[in-house]
Write a structure and sequence with these properties.
18% of the residues lie in helices and 38% in strands. The chain has a 7-stranded mixed sheet with strand order 2-1-9-6-11-4-3, covered by helices on one side. Strands 8-7-10 form a 3-stranded antiparallel sheet, with no helix packed on it. It has a two-stranded antiparallel sheet with strand order 5-12. The chain is of the alpha+beta class and 203 residues long. The longest helix has 18 residues, at 49-66. Helix 1 (32-45) runs antiparallel to helix 2 (49-66). The chain has one domain: Jelly Rolls, CATH 2.60.120. The protein is built from 3 helices and 14 strands.
Length: 203
Amino acid sequence: MAEQDWLVTDDGQYINVTQLSTDQKLHQPYRLYRFLTDLEDILAEVSDDRARLELIRPLVRHLLTNSEWLQLNFSLPDPDTGWSVVMLYDEPDFEITVQTVAWAPKMVSPVHNHGTWGIVALLHGQEKNTFWQRSATANHPDKISVAGDLMIDSGDILSFLPNAIHHIEAVGNEPTISFNLYGKTDYEQRFEFDVDLMTSKIF
């Protein structure tokens, strides 16, 4: 199956935004420092998160295609927690998160948003994403409900608007490995939701 690009909106809708080509002139080879410079330029010039993601997704795909070391720069999931994170770049005053994340088979994340735009490129394995939307009622103003599910495979890219809510499940018998990129987090808007995944609702 061809690699797919997806955008997840604030209300839990997922849109196929696969790009067959890009007008951006990208270097060969495309190294991490060039990617970060291009990323910084986009963030300085474009303020709309959806427009930013449209420009950043092709950069991420080009980076991963041209930098094999990134696909090998991960730690296997911790046997106690079921996951691991490797920071690939960390600089004071450059509040961008660049990391690889590994999940053990069958692990399920908490339901959460990120409080910023984000991109997750699956490098290995298969991952089920469940998307949620706010569905407040008079008695339960913080209630959320499932908006849909999407299975992503190696080579697929998910991009998220800041208030998109989801949780993931590592499917199959091997760990999932992903390249994760996030903008500056608004911690007042970032939440983990106390959800009963058996009933798919929050109170």
